[in-house]
Amino acid sequence: MVRTSISHPQETTAREIPPSVPDVKVSQLQPGEESGWDEFVKASPSGTPFHLSSWRAVVEKALGRRCFSLVARRDRRITGVFPVSLIRSRIFGNSLVSLPLAVYGGICAEDRDSYFALLQAGGDLGRDLGVQYLEMRNRAEEFPTELPGRDLYVTFTQDLTIGPEKLLRGLPRDTRYAVRKSIKAGLEWTEDLSLGEFYEIYAQSVHRLGTPVFSRGLFECIRAEFPGSVRLFGVRKEKQAIAGVFCLYFKDQVLPYYGGALAEFYKDSPNNFMYWSLMEESSKEGLRTFDFGRSKKGTGSFQFKSAWNMQVTELPYRYQLIRGKAIPQLSPVDKKFQLPVEMWKRLPFSWTKILGPSLVRRIPSI
Global pTM? Predict the structure, then answer.
C-alpha cells in the first residue's frame, strides 16, 4: 500500500506538497485490475496510450525496468492513475520516470484532490526507493504546480477533420512542393512493409543521429501488447523499401511514433511523401487528429515538423526533486553529450545494432 493521498493548499510549490485528503485513497494496482485502469484512461481527456497498462508491460518486458501503477480512488471508484518506472543508474543516479519510452505520461486524474494525492504518493514512493527525482512527462497541466521543469520539448498536432484537399492546400509552399516532387519521383505508399524492412531503415536513421537503436524485440513487444492498435506503413521505390513508420492508434488519433528513411533517397523527399500519405489516409479513414509527436527545440526534427503548419504545443515536463538538488540535464542536445553522439555516428553501422539495444536500456532519459 502506498501512503494515502492528500489535500492541497492554495499554492503548491516544489517543496510544498499538500497534506492528506480523507476521502481519496491511493494504492498500487493489483493484478486483475488492469481493465478498470484502462477504462479510466480511455474515458479521461488527459489519457494517452502511454497511460494504458499495456505500456507498463512494454517497459517491463522490453527494458527490464520495474514499474509501479499508482491509482487514486473515492469509494472504490478510480479517480486518477499514475504509472511510474524505476530507473537505476550508477552514472546518473536512480530516478522514477513517468514513463520510459513515452513522450507523454505523468498523472491522469479527474479532479484536483486525486491529482495531488497521486503526486504525494509518487514522492513518497521516490523517498522509499531513495531516488534523485521523479520525472513527469506531462502532455498538459490540468492542475498546475510550481514544480521545476525544462523548456525543451514541444509537440505537433494536425486536425484531420478538414479533409485531404484542405490539408494539402494548408501546407506551406515548400512542403507541398516536396510532396509533389516525391510523387513525380515514383514513390509508392505501401501497407505491406515487413518489420524486418522497417527495423533496418529505422536503425540506419537513428545511427545517423548518433542515437543507440532499440532492439527489434521492442517493436515486436509493442505489437503484442497493443493488438489492433499498431500499424506499419512504408514507402517503396521500384519495390525497394526506402522509408517506414510504426504507428500507434488511440481513440481517434494516429501517432506516427517511430519512423525513418534511407539517406541515399533523401533527394526524393521520402519523409514528406510518407507523412503526407499517412495524413491523407488517416483523414479518409475518419480519424480526427494526427499527432506528430514531440521534438526538441532547435533540432532537425523540430525544423522538419515546423514546416507542416501544425499546432505547436509546449510540453510541461515537471520534476519532483527528492534527493537531487537540480533537475537533470540528460538530453542529447546538452553540450556534454555532443562528443559521445559524434563518436556513435562514426561507429560501423553493424556494430550499432549489436551494441545499441544493450546501451539504450541504461539511458535514463529514453
Answer: 0.90
